[in-house]
Amino acid sequence: MSAFTPARYIEEVIQEIKNECRCAVPGFQKIISFNFEDYGISPTLLWDAEILIQHVIRDGDFVPMDEGIQRHGDSIRHFKCKSCGRICTETYTEYSINMYRSFVIFDEDLRSSKINYALGYRGFEQSDFDKITDFIKSTDDANYIANLTKLP
Ligand SMILES: [Zn+2]
Description:
The protein has one domain. The protein is 26% helix and 29% strand. It contains four helices and nine strands; from the N terminus they run H-H-E-H-E-E-E-E-E-E-E-E-H. Strands 2, 3, 4, 5 and 6 form a five-stranded antiparallel sheet that branches. Strands 1-8 form a two-stranded antiparallel sheet. The protein has a two-stranded parallel sheet with strand order 7-9. Strand 4 (74-81) and strand 5 form a beta hairpin. Helix 1 packs across helix 3 (47-58). The two termini are 25 Å apart.
């Protein structure tokens, strides 16, 4: 079982990831790209992705390239990595006062086909989570961090 709480996650995982540019790490790209719309399910967020996007992209070593545009209820903003120059697109959507989600896709798509998650989902329908088969509950914290930091 993963022992990460959100507080420990920020201390250990975020600190490790922020040590250097992770843009070319397939597992890093994969986890922040989680989008419930890929599964035909109701709005669902992945906590791992929300925390990573907040700390590594919005408050990390990425520079916003625009103010953001609104499209069909989504807020879309482009960011550039200060170290490698790669560009990514953040989509943020609110569905109700306490339901939202974010996901990030890099222009240079290097995503792995599967990734482990540690913190889990929040969504309108718990039964929907079973339909997500490429994000797999982590059982090993060290392996989880390795997947988000190791280049192929
Ligand atoms: Zn980078």
